[in-house]
Amino acid sequence: MRRPRLPARLPLDPYVLALLATVGLAGLLPATGAGATVAEEAAGAAVALLFFLYGARLSTREALDGLRHWRLHLTVMACTFVLFPVLGLAARLLVPGLLTQPLYSGLLFLCLVPSTIQSSIAFTSIARGNVPAAICAGSFSSLAGILLTPLLAAALLGNDAGGFSLDSLLKIVLQLLLPFLLGQGLRRWVGGFLTRHRKVLGYVDRGSILLVVYAAFSAGVAAGVWHQVSLPRLGALMAVEAVLLAVMLLATWYGSARLGFGRADRVAIQFAGSKKSLAAGLPMASVLFGAQASLAVLPLMLFHQMQLMVCAVLARRRARDPEAVLQDQLDARRVVEVSPAVQPPAAQGR
After folding, report:
1. Which of 61, 56, 62, 53 has the alpha carbon at shortest distance from 137?
2. Coil, strand, or helix at residue 44?
3. Which residue has the higher pLDDT, 206 or 42?
4. Spatial distance between the Cα atoms of 281 and 296, rounded to a whole number of angstroms
5. Average of per-residue pLDDT values in the chain
6. pLDDT category, 162, cuts 50, 70, 90?
7. Alpha-carbon distance 306 to 90, whole Å?
8. d(Cα 150, Cα 273) in Å, to the nearest integer?
9. Amino acid 329: pLDDT
10. More confident residue, 94 or 34
11. By the 8 A CB rule, do 66 and 73 touch?
């Protein structure tokens, strides 16, 4: 058997580099005084814009069509919002030995964030899995996360996430849920525009998140939260996250096999059920954690890059599975059989 080779170039996400540069800018030139107020208000507006765009882009028809594969979607949802949080709660045993309380709160918040959409689809496609299922599973997870993530954070994180009060609930509704519902309501009129300008709006998405990160880390610098983090603690956090990712990748792959799913569905479950969304988690953290958001999102930023690198290697390996190679051969044979034979003109006229 040939040993699987690593790809020639591991995917260092340029967006992660931009996020790190933003963190560095907040450390060198944090927003203070009136500037901090402006940055906080701008970040709040950016969060509302982000969730409006999420709502306007989500196709209600595709979501309803995807309900037919409900067992797969329930499995992904259980991995995202049940198994992940259980593992996050179990990591409480690592405090204070390996993790500080603020880093643990960020790790637990990471476990409550919804799954990704784009990268789950991309890796499922590379691994020759069920791409339509990955699209629907990621969409359902993102939609459910708008409600479930804040509720789970309030229940499991308590005071670390600002507690659960009428004021915090109203803030979540105004900044997350209301813009999302507004986007869904206006999708009929703005959906075509968003589709035509998808690339430009992608920069708006990412720029908004960079603004949220700058405001959050500026507040963290002003509050002195970075004095709570040391290099050994960061190393311990990365090791814990590596174990967390490995456990989820194994649980989604072998657990879905025990549930009777075929290979293509197992690929979709593995990549959609083991990953976490940086795009959804960052703005949610800014709403839920306030000045403590900088430490809260640090585990999520590290996990995001880790999952990209590991899943890129895994997807290429899945593409070389005997079942995937056999399926490709069968598909190619069907194309040859369906295509009409090319005959000489004389033979066609007889």
Report:
1. 62
2. helix
3. 42
4. 10
5. 79
6. low
7. 21
8. 19
9. 52
10. 94
11. yes
Q: Report d(CA 171, CA 282) in Å as an integer.
A: 16
Count helices and strands (H / E) in the chain: 17, 0
Q: How many CA atoms lie within 13 A of 25 on its CB side?
A: 14
Q: Which amino acid is at 175?
A: Q
Residue 55 has a pLDDT of 74
Neighbouring C-beta atoms of residue 46, cutoff 10 Å: 21
Cα–Cα–Cα angle for 197, 201, 206, rounded to 5 degrees: 155
Give yes or no for a contact between 275 and 306, defined as CB atoms under 8 angstroms apart.
no
Residues with Cβ within 8 Å of 211's Cβ and at least 6 positions away in sequence, in order, are: 39, 42, 43, 46
Q: In a 3-state reduction of DSSP, which class is residue 9?
A: coil
**96 cis-preceded (ω within 30 degrees of 0):** yes
DSSP characters over 98-143? TS-HHHHHHHHHHHHSPPPSHHHHHHHHHTT--HHHHHHHHHHHHH
| Contact yes or no for 115/273 (Cβ under 8 A) | yes
pLDDT at 349 over 50: no
Look at residues 60, 110, 149 and name the one whose alpha carbon lies nearest to residue 304.
110
Q: Which helix (H) or strand (E) holds 183?
A: helix 178-196
| H/E run at residue 95 | none
Query: Could you tell me how many residues make up the chain?
Result: 350
State phi, psi for 13 to the nearest 5 degrees: -60, 120
- Cβ distance 46 to 283 under 8 Å? yes
What CA–CA distance (Å, rounded) separates 290 from 172?
12
Rounded to whole angstroms, the Cα distance separating 134 from 273 reads 10
Q: For tokens 């906080």, what's the residue? A: 40
Instruction: Please tell me the predicted confidence (pLDDT) of residue 188.
Output: 83
**Percent of the chain predicted with pLDDT > 90:** 23
| Cα angle 286, 156, 19; round to 5 | 30
Cβ-contact 51, 176 below 8 angstroms: yes
Q: Is 121 in contact with 138 (CB distance < 8 Å)?
A: yes
Q: With helix as H, strand as E and coil as C, how does 35-65 read?
A: HHHHHHHHHHHHHHHHHHHHHHHCCHHHHHH
Give the span between the Cα atoms of 265 and 318, in whole angstroms. 13
